[in-house]
Design a protein that fits this description.
Length: 496
């Protein structure tokens, strides 16, 4: 028989029963000794009573009655002790019999186990340890299969429950949000006090209107609408600056090239103030008070930007409120989620100045101005250019989709149109010697301002041809696009 290890369950039971028998025997011996002692005390009491009865026969009667009662009590105790002793003897006998039976069964089980191990080793060619390892491996495999099945059921139930809960949260947030729908336009209207003002805007032989369009980079339409002129430009900041400048010129009444430049510089300052005010209002709306000062004008510039026809500043404010409401339902940090959603389109204010997608440009901008790493990640991951790995990043994707998918919120054609105009200007400004480039006439005309010291007349003609070829090769557009290179030399002297 192989060496025995730790005692088996049967052996432990036998030991317990033996200990119980010993304890019972000791208890019986103690009770029997106490009973004998009580009998001896009773006999001494009787002897003493007999001795005194001879001396005080009249006073002993009461004491004898007490003795009788005591004897009766002792007799009852003796009877109970005798009965208990019998019960203990009976229990001891049963314990002995059970012990013998357990020992017999333990021996039989040991023999059966040894025979089974020998048979298993003979049939499978395995040692005892190898057989145990094989059984444990199979048991573990079965347990894993059952656990996988249970986990799959739990996962399916959780998905179904999460789907219902998520739908409820999103519907509740959308119902609670009240946001106006704003659509961007590429045309601004300026009212005129009289029809005579159109002639003053045009100037002698078109001098004023050409100067205005060259300085502001917009296209002015003076004949289409009575009592007003139209300013057309895909860049909303540039269009707003030109509109403010033209209103200033109309109010002043003096319209000539030098005054146009002065009004344009003044209007740029005015628009900058409006951008700052729009940013402050938006930040107050979403409860952000610690944004880096350099990011405030960037946020304000979103007021004049559009995404698929939707005002970007209104879009990010809407996303901020949606993120806050959903975060509250999910038990997340409301202020943190609202901030991440508000800043997610930050790059759209500067993508015309930097190469790359607005998500990556905005993330880099936020990173350089000290925003939290999780907010930077939410910005760069909201269009899946970076894989989202936080709950906040996924939440920003959700609210961005909700805001953009509302009926009437966006128009794809406008976004494509603006992108084409921006690409036209970038193609022109990429050449050496080009100072500024403006896409006007709805993208049918590109006006390129070059430095007269770097580009001569012959080079200007070659530059116009080269830009036209690049536009034909890289862009798809209906009709034709005219490229006009303007080389202007100015001589200024001051008399004193």
């Amino acid at each position: 028989m192989p060496a025995r290890g730790a005692p088996s369950g049967i052996e432990v039971l036998v030991l317990v029963l033996l200990a119980a028998a010993v304890v019972a025997a000791v208890a019986f011996a103690i009770m029997w000794a106490r009973t004998l002692e009580m009998l001896r005390a009773s006999r001494r009491t009787e002897a003493e009573l007999d001795r005194r009865s001879h001396e005080e026969r009249d006073g002993v009667r009461a004491e004898r009655e007490a003795v009788v009662r005591r004897e009766t009590l002792v007799a009852e105790r003796e009877a109970r002790a005798t009965e208990m002793a019998g019960a203990m003897d009976e229990r001891a006998g049963r314990i002995d019999a059970l012990d013998a039976e357990v020992r017999a069964k333990a021996g039989e089980a040991d023999r059966t186990l040894v025979d089974a191990e020998r048979e298993l080793a003979r049939v499978a060619g395995l040692t005892r340890d190898e057989a145990v390892a094989d059984i444990m491996e199979r048991a573990e495999h079965d347990a894993r299969l059952r656990a996988a099945a249970i986990a799959h059921d739990i996962e399916q139930e959780a998905r179904s429950s999460a789907q219902k809960q998520a739908s409820g949260i999103l519907v509740t947030a959308m119902q609670r949000l009240a946001s106006e729908q704003t659509a961007a336009s590429v045309v601004a209207t300026v009212d005129l006090p009289s029809e005579d003002m159109k002639g003053r805007i045009i100037g002698r032989e078109g001098r004023n209107i050409r100067a205005f369009e060259q300085v502001t980079g917009v296209n002015v339409l003076v004949d289409d609408t009575p009592g007003s002129v139209l300013i057309s430009c895909f860049d909303p900041v540039r269009r707003e600056t030109a509109r403010v400048a033209l209103e200033e010129l109309i109010a002043d009444g003096r319209i000539h090239p030098q005054r146009i430049e002065e009004a344009f510089e003044k209007s740029k300052a005015t628009v900058d103030q409006r951008i700052d005010a729009a940013a402050r209002d938006a930040l107050a709306s979403v409860g952000i008070s610690d944004l880096h000062p350099d990011l405030v004008p960037v946020v304000g510039a979103l007021h004049y930007r559009a995404s698929h026809g939707q005002n970007v500043l209104a879009h990010v404010v809407e996303c901020g409120h949606l993120a806050g409401m959903i975060a509250a339902e999910l038990g997340l940090d409301v202020a943190f989620c609202r901030r991440a959603a508000f800043l997610h389109d930050l790059g759209k204010a500067v993508t015309h100045e930097h190469e790359g997608s607005h998500a990556l440009v905005g993330a880099d901008l936020a990173r350089r101005h000290g925003e939290h790493a999780d907010i930077v990640h939410a910005i760069e991951a909201h269009h899946n250019e970076v894989e989202p790995h936080t709950v906040e990043a996924v939440l920003v994707q959700v609210v961005d989709s909700i805001s953009g998918s509302r009926p009437g919120a966006r128009r794809e054609s406008l976004e494509a149109y603006v992108h084409r105009l921006e690409r036209l200007e970038k193609l022109a400004t990429a050449h050496e010697g080009v100072e500024r480039a403006f896409a006007v006439q709805a993208g049918r005309d590109v006006r390129v301002m070059v430095s007269p010291t770097l580009v001569d007349d012959a080079q200007a003609a070659a530059l116009a041809r080269q830009i036209a070829q690049e536009i034909s090769a890289e862009l798809t557009f209906p009709g034709q696009i005219r490229v006009t290179v303007v080389r202007e030399s100015r001589a200024v002297e001051i008399a004193s």
